[in-house]
Amino acid sequence: MTRPILIVLGAFAIMASAICLLVLVPAAMLRGVKAPAALQPYTARQLAGRQVYIANGCLYCHSQQIRDPAFTTDVDRGWGARATVPADYVYDRPHLMGTMRTGPDLINVGQRLPSEDWQLIHLYDPRALVEWSIMPGFPFLFEKKAPGDVRPGDRVVTVPGPRAPKGVVVVAKPEAVALADYLISLKRTYPVEENPAAPPGVTQHSAAGRVAQGRP
Amino acid sequence: MSAGAIPEGLTRVEIDAVASGRGLSPAELEARLRADASSRRVVLLLYSVALGWLIIGSLFGELASLKLHWPDLLTAWAPLTFGRVRTAHLHMVNYGWATAALIGTSLWLFPRLVHAELKGARLAMVGAVLFTVGVLLGIVGVLAGVNDGMEWLEGNRWLTAPFQVVGGGLIGLSLFRTAAARKAEHLYVSVWYILGSFVWFPMLYLTAKIYPWSGATSAAVNWFYAHNVLGFWLTSMSVGAAYYFIPKVLGRPIYSYQLSLLGFWSLAMFYSLNGMHHLVGGPIPEWMITTSIVASIFMFIPVVATGINLHMTVLGRFGALRYSPTLRFVVLGGLAYTAVSLQGSLTALREVNRITHFTHWTVAHSHVGGYGFVTFVAFGSMYYVVPRLVGHEWPSARLIRWHFNLALAGIAIYVVALSWAGVAQGLALLDPKLPFQFSVVRSMPGLYGRSLGGVLMTIAHFVFAYHFWIMLRAPRGAAGATRPPFHEAQPLLYAVEEPGR
């Protein structure tokens, strides 16, 4: 090759077609996906909690997606009753589907672990509740106060067991309460119908499942 | 300078070539010296920045690794929580270290390859500073909790994108202007890859950053970008460098021009459709995932074409790896490229992916590519380029040896330990009778192994950075190492004549 312009144009044309195929076409297809009636938009506090989730990198260890039960054991593991579909993510800006399961999937954690107390203790010190956990604690989302300094309205967190801090009271900051609120809001438990607006292929009965079962 | 005289500032190898009447005429050498001088300052700046990022990026990576098996380590302060440290590491080593090193190498290669001085070198220098500021702001933001939320794109769009677009644009402009001013008729294959990369990276970056994508579409955009930034920036720039240094050091032409062509255009065709294999089984339209799996298998074509081309050029001359640290690093990098690409194609298959998806396997895989391939090629390039910019050889063969051996041992331990951890984790996750605990506990030995490998790699980087530092400080024309770094090692395959005897 002797002309730089041909390389530049060729490179541009190939990438432009890939962007059309894998970005613009799906963006147009998925625009028609409506939120299921049972899916509530996030409240302001839940959105604030979602931002805490992003800022502290929860998504690098926790996924938020259930894959086809015929293809994986996500459903058997009790993480959800069905595979998640694009409609489940309509209010997610941006998606937090994740790529690692160093910790468990969280898309239905609000159903499994709905107690705010449990969530707050676990955020403060995971190993106070789950001995083998390798999740970091997030003590910076909490304050330690002398017992006399606790005010009415403070969200006091009672850490059980030998790992409880001695002589001080643990109080959740608003960020911790918002994060717990967001986590408890994660429930994609409603049934989804085959969405008439969705293009073919956007269902939980995917080709992946048939492959895993050895069917064509 | 009078015709026939040996120009100043040549390395010993080049002076020998002139003195013995082999190689280039003094006039050609002078043109080459002018080409090197035109890019000297910006390349040294970028290499220095790159090494700074490599050192702190390694420390952040090591800290993140330690935190996964010592989870109570340094939890009190938000900027040092795992999720922020890990992300800062990713940005430091990819957009800091690898990107700066690869741009530096390409700015040095380009004038040599097109037989013209670098145009707009000053603006390229400004571009390098702006780009670095953008990367730095993004990382400081991530550590402070300002995060856009998509992997590989965490830097806040208002804080980072303007600097990176303008900075990268100025560097790209310098390259395109140099290409336009070329005196060489034929464009060597490295030029294709560098030009292509400077078209592709901005397209990808703007597609992902310019619009606040949401819902399932944002997942598709996320992995379209995050996978392609490997293929159309880190990979393409590194393959371009490997195509230059392997034939250059060996003094023989590349094996096949036709294979170069096939490798380049088929990489563009197939790599660009790969990204959705990060979402196998996920909630995006099935045809997208299938397209990416098929394209991932088609990646065998560019990978095998490039692999044959690079490896056949080396074949029969493995003995030369004893004399040239450049060749040693770049040839190993080329082997890692073949390995990581074939591994990636297989991992895209659904049957493999259901075990390895969501596990440490992916992290190990990314380090075969990002370290074994990209970083090794960057190291090899710097071993070749820096002596030609500062006018003397590397001071110490022993430091080169330590750098290479520690880096290789480190990445080998890292990859073996973490891949094993990933498979153990994935198999435990696939058995619903096993509680989740098993996937954590069974991967723990691999996580410790990863930290050990990381320590070795980090020490290797300190050795290299120290060597680079004394290299820069030594006066022009200082004496370098008198013997090649690996002269006492036996050839890998069979003995070859030692050059120069």
Briefly summarize what is shown.
The complex is a heterodimer of chains A (216) and B (501). Chain A has 216 residues and is mostly helical. Chain A has helices at residues 4-30, 44-55, 109-112, 116-124, 174-185, 207-212; strands at residues 142-145, 155-157, 169-172.
Description:
The complex is a heterodimer of chains A (216) and B (501). In chain A, helix 4 (116-124) crosses helix 5 (174-185). With 216 residues, chain A is mostly helical. Residues 195-216 of chain A have low confidence and may be disordered. A three-stranded antiparallel beta sheet of chain A has the order 1-3-2. Helix content of chain A is 32%, strand content 5%. Chain A has helices spanning 4-30, 44-55, 109-112, 116-124, 174-185, 207-212; strands at residues 142-145, 155-157, 169-172. By secondary structure, chain B is an all-alpha fold. Chain B folds into two domains: 28-187, Four Helix Bundle (Hemerythrin (Met), subunit A) (Up-down Bundle); 220-487, Cytochrome C Oxidase, Chain A (Up-down Bundle), CATH 1.20.210.10. In chain B, 73% of the residues lie in helices and 0% in strands. Chain B is globular and about 75 Å long.
Fill in the keyword field for this structure.
A: three-stranded antiparallel sheet, 6 helices, 3 strands, disordered C terminus, B: 501 residues, mainly alpha, Four Helix Bundle (Hemerythrin (Met), subunit A), Cytochrome C Oxidase, Chain A, globular
